[in-house]
């Protein structure tokens, strides 16, 4: 019997690891990340929790060769059941051009490499962010965002980000949502589904790094109706749902798992204006 394979990029991060704990009970897990040391550590942590059918590969998602090699490894292991793309950079981690390259172009590279492996029942979940809702959905950048593999996309987006890593991040995460809408038909032709998920303020190492360096994060938490951070496990259970047959008619959407922050933001802005 062919094995079901779940590929998780950013597999050693907080959300990636939490997702692996859940999907590892359903099939083979293939973790991808830039750091081999962290991947080995994650594999050991999963083994201690009884998740043992785990493979890993070091991958730079902006490298077409690296990602093609990951797709090849997936095909060797079995059938692509789930692709969870959590790899990305946050505003304090890089400059605006690198954020666009990793978060936007990298997403395009991953989808392009894995589309040929999609079959009936394959599900893709891309991690976006509530920050994607901070950028207007209308604008001259919308068509650029939908085509992450077009020539000069980094330079084109830099016109709008103008060196601001926070702006580049919001735009790249809006791009993820737009790509999902744009590609729902393409994946649907193969009987596959594609969705994004937008976390709010989450208690992960990356989330904590952002919170310590950006006062805007603390402000977001103050207007969150549930009045707390989310946990990686709360992202993972939502990812698990989107990957599962329980979501078999759900495709082309963004699921916000943000404690209600975005819903409340419009109200707060209206009150303050």
Top-tier CATH class: Alpha Beta
How far the N terminus sits from the C terminus, by CA atoms, comes to 60 Å
The count of domains is 1
Multimerization state: single chain
Give me the CATH superfamily.
Answer: NAD(P)-binding Rossmann-like Domain
Helix content range of the residues, please?
40-55%
Mean pLDDT: 94
> Unreliable runs, pLDDT <50, ≥5 residues?
none
Strand numbers in spatial order across the main sheet: 3-2-1-4-5-6-7
CATH topology: Rossmann fold
In brief, what are we looking at here?
The protein is an alpha/beta fold and 273 residues long. Helices cover 49% and strands 15% of the residues.
Chain-wise SSE layout:
Blueprint: E1 4-9, H1 14-23, E2 28-33, H2 36-48, E3 54-58, H3 64-77, E4 79-85, H4 96-114, E5 123-127, H5 142-146, H6 153-161, H7 165-188, E6 193-199, H8 205-213, H9 215-222, H10 232-243, E7 254-257, H11 261-272
Parallel strand pairs: 1-2, 1-4, 2-3, 4-5, 5-6, 6-7
Helix pairs in contact: 1-10, 3-4, 4-6, 4-7, 6-7, 8-9
Summarize the structure in words:
With 273 residues, this protein is of the alpha/beta class. The chain has a single domain, classed as NAD(P)-binding Rossmann-like Domain (Rossmann fold, 3-Layer(aba) Sandwich). 49% of the residues lie in helices and 15% in strands. It contains 11 helices and 7 strands. It has helices at 14-23, 36-48, 64-77, 96-114, 142-146, 153-161, 165-188, 205-213, 215-222, 232-243, 261-272, and strands at residues 4-9, 28-33, 54-58, 79-85, 123-127, 193-199, 254-257. A 7-stranded parallel β-sheet has the order 3-2-1-4-5-6-7, with helices on both faces. Helix 4 links the parallel strand 4 and strand 5 (123-127). Helix 4 (96-114) crosses helix 6 (153-161), helix 4 runs parallel beside helix 7 and helix 8 (205-213) crosses helix 9. The radius of gyration is 18 Å and the shape is globular. The N and C termini lie far apart (60 Å). The relative contact order is 0.14. The model has no long low-confidence stretch (mean pLDDT 94).
């Amino acid at each position: 019997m062919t094995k079901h394979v779940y590929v998780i990029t950013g597999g050693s991060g907080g959300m990636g690891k939490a997702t692996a704990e859940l999907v590892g009970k359903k099939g083979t897990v293939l973790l991808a990340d830039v750091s081999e040391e962290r991947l080995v550590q994650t594999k050991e942590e999963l083994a201690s929790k009884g998740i043992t059918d785990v493979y890993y590969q070091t991958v730079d998602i902006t490298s077409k060769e690296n990602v093609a090699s990951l797709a090849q490894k997936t095909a060797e292991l079995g059938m692509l059941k789930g692709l969870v793309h959590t790899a990305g950079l946050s505003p304090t981690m890089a400059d605006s051009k690198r954020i666009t390259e990793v978060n936007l172009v990298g997403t395009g590279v991953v989808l392009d490499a894995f589309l040929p492996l999609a079959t009936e029942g394959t599900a893709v979940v891309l991690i976006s962010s509530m920050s994607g809702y901070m950028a207007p959905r209308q604008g001259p950048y919308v068509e650029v965002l939908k085509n992450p593999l077009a020539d000069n996309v980094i330079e084109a987006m830099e016109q709008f980000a103008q060196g601001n890593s926070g702006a580049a991040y919001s735009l790249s995460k809006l791009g993820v949502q737009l790509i999902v809408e744009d590609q729902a038909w393409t994946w649907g032709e193969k009987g596959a589904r594609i969705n994004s998920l937008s976390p709010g303020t989450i208690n992960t190492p990356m989330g904590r790094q952002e919170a310590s360096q950006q006062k805007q994060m603390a402000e977001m938490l103050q207007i969150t109706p549930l009045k707390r951070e989310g946990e990686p496990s709360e992202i993972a259970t939502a990812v698990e749902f989107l990957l599962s047959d329980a979501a078999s008619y759900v495709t082309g959407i963004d699921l916000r798992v943000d404690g209600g922050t975005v819903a409340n933001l419009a109200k707060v802005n209206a009150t303050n204006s």
